[in-house]
């Protein structure tokens, strides 16, 4: 039986909401193994002079909980 953990993150980009989601996933992958799903909760942006200058994506990422703890030798 697999237990899944879900965490919530906010990714940021200066180019697009897609890149903001991808940035959140890429950064999480640096410390979390086995990410298997993403849910986009909301998309927000910062506007200056009539243009979007920062894109933010609030996401939930899912990954399996490990069966056993790794032992540091």
UniProtKB/TrEMBL annotation:
<dbReference type="InterPro" id="IPR025543">
    <property type="entry name" value="Dodecin-like"/>
</dbReference>
<dbReference type="InterPro" id="IPR036694">
    <property type="entry name" value="Dodecin-like_sf"/>
</dbReference>
<dbReference type="Pfam" id="PF07311">
    <property type="entry name" value="Dodecin"/>
</dbReference>
<protein>
    <recommendedName>
        <fullName>Dodecin domain-containing protein</fullName>
    </recommendedName>
</protein>
<dbReference type="InterPro" id="IPR009923">
    <property type="entry name" value="Dodecin"/>
</dbReference>
């Amino acid at each position: 039986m697999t237990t899944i953990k879900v965490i919530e993150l906010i990714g940021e980009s200066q180019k697009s909401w897609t890149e903001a989601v991808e940035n959140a996933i890429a950064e999480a992958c640096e410390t979390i193994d086995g990410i298997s799903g993403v849910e986009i909760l909301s998309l927000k942006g910062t506007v200056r002079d009539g243009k979007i200058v920062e894109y933010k994506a609030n996401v939930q990422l899912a990954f399996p909980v490990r069966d056993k703890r790794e032992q540091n030798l």
